[in-house]
């Protein structure tokens, strides 16, 4: 079990990840990504608490749109302000990278590193995926387009539009 | 009432709404595909002009005890602030130029010359206002929490003072906007997370200190014996920017014809319905290229709300196509000269300071469609609805 104090700020090879605002999923002992948490963000009441487990593979539509329009990270929920670089990162399946269409909102580069080190080893669907993935695509971009659902119940999608790197990784 | 019951487009069938959405999608795709060097040159040129104007204004104010220098410096600085806030800051923070991959001209990194922290603007404006455009109870731009701007809002005796509050809002606009994202209503109802509120207040304090020290301490001190007159000139420049921004913003959603919606109207809307809500909730104003630049191209408010992240210099060409689409589908396209649009907003402020029974509704009758179309189903008439995981609506449907 991780000490709660260590959950707040985590170092990765690309920077620090601030998870102080994130709720913790006790079943998997991981932070709940902002984009997967229906109990945080605009329109929620901080006094309301979830009663059941969190679906770590889900992307809450309202949160996805908030990430896109407010320019906030899908993991930590904080501004995508990136210092000297304007880069944001998308993670998803290889098929998503090939079609340049991602379901999970953009992440800080450090949050993407943290997410890939933390969630895939749980061996449950995570980060906007319906299936457990062995390989993950990582796409770094300066910007992206938001695609609102054209049908009721369809997901919000993201299209990177200034891609600087693409790679495939096999975490844990 | 559901979005499909809004009388301005109940004449459209489900298929026609989807066809309209496809046309707007195609228009977006065309602009995305043609974005390039000339657009990049435009925003770079705007930034260069703005910085030179600001520098010229600041330098001129070193001689601000001399009246012509006072007024020239204040005017240059005021216009520079208007350009920075409207055409540059507002549009950069929407991500209109992120595709250039320039770390400086980027929504993640731009911090603008006004009291509200950029991060809070991107939440209160880019998300709350653009997602919940003109939705009562959500969009705090409807009267900025102090003005009654829709007949659907309940009248209270305190509304009698609206003309006065409106004047104060115009004069102190940047300070009102600075507090915008705190969401006073959520604080009042105890919904706001105290930790989040503390974080936001800290950000506001930091930004306000920076703005005050820049305009009222550092630059005045640099002008030596002219410090006091430089303080006055900087205050005048800020006042110019405040009043201008206020006028432009109030012309975007409050002239006659711009509609308000209720929370239920958001329910599970498709992209095409979202487009329609943006078109019906916004209003344009006419003018020459200089007026459009100084207003951040928000004279094309309808186009801005349809495509908030497409480059603002393209809105003029987009507007020709959008106007044509509106005409063909029998959708209102609200537009008029700036003075008329602002006059209507001002009339609404004055009228709604009184109870509904004492005033008449000024909303125009929607245009008749040029042919009879198959009516769309209302939400209640639709057979099965999927419930979104989002938290927009408290209304449940089967």
Question: What keywords describe this structure?
Answer:
heterodimer, A: 172 residues, alpha+beta, three-stranded antiparallel sheet, two-stranded antiparallel ribbon, 4 helices, 9 strands, globular, disordered N terminus, B: 398 residues, mainly alpha, two-stranded parallel ribbon, 14 helices, 2 strands, disordered C terminus
What can you tell me about this protein's structure?
The complex is a heterodimer of chains A (172) and B (398). Chain A has 172 residues and is α+β, with helices and mostly antiparallel strands. Chain A has one domain (4-169). Helix content of chain A is 17%, strand content 22%. In chain A, a hairpin with a 4-residue loop joins strand 3 and strand 4 (30-31). Chain B contains 14 helices and two strands; from the N terminus they run ααααααααααβαααβα. Chain B has helices at residues 14-34, 37-60, 67-93, 118-131, 162-171, 173-178, 184-188, 194-222, 227-253, 271-281, 289-294, 301-306, 315-329, 338-351; strands at residues 284-286, 335-337. Chain B is globular. In chain B, 46% of the residues are buried. Residues 369-380 and 382-398 of chain B have low confidence and may be disordered. The chains are: A alpha+beta (172), B mainly alpha (398). Chains A and B meet through helix 2 and strand 7 of A and helix 1, helix 4, helix 8 and helix 10 of B.
């Amino acid at each position: 079990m991780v000490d709660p104090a260590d959950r707040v700020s985590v170092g990765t090879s690309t920077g620090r990840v601030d998870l102080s605002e994130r709720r913790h999923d006790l079943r998997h002992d991981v932070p709940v990504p902002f984009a997967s948490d229906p109990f945080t963000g605009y329109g929620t009441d901080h006094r309301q608490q979830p009663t059941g487990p969190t679906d770590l593979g889900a992307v809450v539509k309202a949160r996805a749109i908030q990430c896109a329009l407010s320019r906030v990270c899908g993991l930590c929920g904080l501004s995508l302000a990136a210092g000297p670089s304007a880069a944001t990162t998308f993670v998803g399946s290889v098929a998503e990278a090939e079609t340049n269409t991602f379901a999970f909102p953009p992440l800080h580069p450090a949050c993407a590193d943290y997410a890939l080190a933390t969630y895939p080893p749980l061996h449950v669907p995570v980060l906007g995926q319906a299936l457990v993935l062995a390989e993950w695509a990582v796409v770094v971009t300066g910007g992206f387009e938001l695609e609102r659902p054209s049908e009721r119940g369809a997901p919000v999608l993201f299209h990177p539009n200034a891609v600087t790197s693409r790679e495939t990784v096999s975490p844990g | 009432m559901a979005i499909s019951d809004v009388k301005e487009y109940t004449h459209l069938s489900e298929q026609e709404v989807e066809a309209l959405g496809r046309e707007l999608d195609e228009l977006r795709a065309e602009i995305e595909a043609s974005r390039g060097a000339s657009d990049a040159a435009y925003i770079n040129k705007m930034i260069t002009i703005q910085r030179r104007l600001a520098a010229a204004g600041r330098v001129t104010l070193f001689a601000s005890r001399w009246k012509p220098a006072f007024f020239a410096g204040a005017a240059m600085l005021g216009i520079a602030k208007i350009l920075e806030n409207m055409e540059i800051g507002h549009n950069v923070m929407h991500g209109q130029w992120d595709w250039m991959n320039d770390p400086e001209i980027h929504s993640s990194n731009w911090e603008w010359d006004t009291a509200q922290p950029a991060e809070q603007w991107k939440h209160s404006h880019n998300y709350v206002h653009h997602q919940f455009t003109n939705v009562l109870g959500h969009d705090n731009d409807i009267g900025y929490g102090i003005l009654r701007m829709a007949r659907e809002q309940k009248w209270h005796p305190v509304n009698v003072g609206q003309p006065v509050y409106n004047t104060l809002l115009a004069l102190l606009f940047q300070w009102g906007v600075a507090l915008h994202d705190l969401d006073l209503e959520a604080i009042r109802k105890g919904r706001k997370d105290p930790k989040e509120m503390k974080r936001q207040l800290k950000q506001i304090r930091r930004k306000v200190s920076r703005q005050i020290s820049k305009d009222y301490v550092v630059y005045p001190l640099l002008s030596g014996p002219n410090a006091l007159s430089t303080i006055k000139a900087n205050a005048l420049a800020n006042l110019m920017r405040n009043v201008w921004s206020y006028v432009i913003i109030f012309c975007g959603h409050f002239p006659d014809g711009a509609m308000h919606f209720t929370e239920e109207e958001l329910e599970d809307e498709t992209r095409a319905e979202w487009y329609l809500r943006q078109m019906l909730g916004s209003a344009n104003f006419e003018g020459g290229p200089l007026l459009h630049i100084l207003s951040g191209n928000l004279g094309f408010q309808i186009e801005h709300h349809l495509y908030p992240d497409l480059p603002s210099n393209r809105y003029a060409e987009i507007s020709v196509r959008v106007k044509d689409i509106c005409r063909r589908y029998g959708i209102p396209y609200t537009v008029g000269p700036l003075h008329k649009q602002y006059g209507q907003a001002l009339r609404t402020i004055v009228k709604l300071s009184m109870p509904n029974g004492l005033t008449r509704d000024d909303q125009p009758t929607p245009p008749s469609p040029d042919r009879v179309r198959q009516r769309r189903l209302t939400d209640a008439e639709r057979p099965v609805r999927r419930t979104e995981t989002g938290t927009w609506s408290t209304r449940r449907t089967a």
